[in-house]
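User: My collaborator and I are trying to settle a disagreement about how two of our proteins should look. Neither of us wants to argue from intuition anymore, so we agreed to look at predicted structures for both before our next call. Could you fold the first one, then the second, and keep them clearly separated?

Assistant: That sounds like a sensible way to settle it. I'll keep them separate. The first protein:
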Amino acid sequence: MAEGKRWPVRPWVRALHRDLGYLAVGLTLVYALSGLAVNHISDWDPNFRNHEATHRLGPLAGEDDEAIARQVLQRLAIQEKPTEVYRASPEQLDVVFPRRTLHINPASGEVTEEGQQPRFLLRAANWLHLNRGKKAWTYIADAYAAGLLLLALSGLFMIPGRKGLLGRGAVLVAVGVAIPVAYVQLSGGPDAASGRPATRPGP
């Protein structure tokens, strides 16, 4: 077949790579930001941030602990219903919510609020990244993974010549493959992380 009549594969590969790249931008941002966050989970909580506040309401009185708790919630304009109200000590009444707790000193009227607030957007990104929702998101995540594979493979054949796969590209691909392989070898891999001795295949 004449050179000029060959099927123009490379333009189609470039078009596929371009359109998949545009399509993957949103999901890539979600997975990249979440990946950075959960990589450092030992240093911080990637889903919630802790907060503490002190309120001074003056001496509180009521028929029982429930009445005191209702009085505090009314003064602080809290509409949320507590899950538990109990005496932590003779001087302290605790009002517990799913994401916060009020420590009340009825005699002084001092209320210490401790709780957690979801990190804006990041908690949702982590929820998606770790596939906590399951169901339909599993198929979306699978499609995204397949798209990344296509991006990687199509990227190999986009550029011809010495800057492509037969030249500098081959060196860069080899370096990219060598990085995770070398790290597994040098760190000991999953067996070292789990504390178990490495298993050897039998004869």
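The second protein, kept apart from the first:
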Amino acid sequence: MCNFGLCDLVLVNPVADIHDRNARQMSTHGEDILDAARVVSSVIEAVADCVLVIGTSGPQGGLFRRQSVGWPDEILAHAVEPLHADYPVALVFGPEPTGLSNDEVTLCHHLIHIPTAEVYGSLILAQAVAICLYELHHQWLDATEHRAAAHTLAAFAEQDLMFDQLRQALEEIHFLYGDKADALMHAVRHLLGKARLTEMEVKVLLGLARQIRWYVAQQTPTMGSNSSNGGMP
């Protein structure tokens, strides 16, 4: 949990005492999480304040374990939006010998199944936790990056200036010409508009348009007579 930025640990009827000396030794660099852990008597009590409950299960099939089941990346994607909105989400793991009971699985909105090789499909609890928390952390970072990028989207005025320069550049290289010029430019605007351009991307395209126009201007021949052939036409 400490590795992947989580801190709210709830234990349901734990066999071991969280203040046991061995627990302290096993929680290297995670003592704060252990100190703040809550001990409750039931899963219902543990997840009472959560808007989303995601369980974990090894065996698949049966009425209880085939509803809303998926791999970690698929299921944990559902957790990111409520977490970004500061709503609590529970990720529930069963005891290592037995896993979650059917009654406990029933309380979950989604169920994670970690795909493993058929030759040996068992995972110890620590491995399952690490895999799921890694995936949740990965999904969180990815969503955070996309949210940050969304704040730098270019304003309409910036985009319109870029499109004006781009149109002039495309006209000068004869990509746009004739009766179909307006329709083709509309297609270009639509294509780029779907990308939800950022301020930086608009600046790049604006620089591209200006460079095209500069290059075309350099290639335009200068009007005048040819002196190399003695002025002969």
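Some points you might bring to the call about the second protein. The longest helix spans residues 125-150. The longest strand covers residues 52-56.
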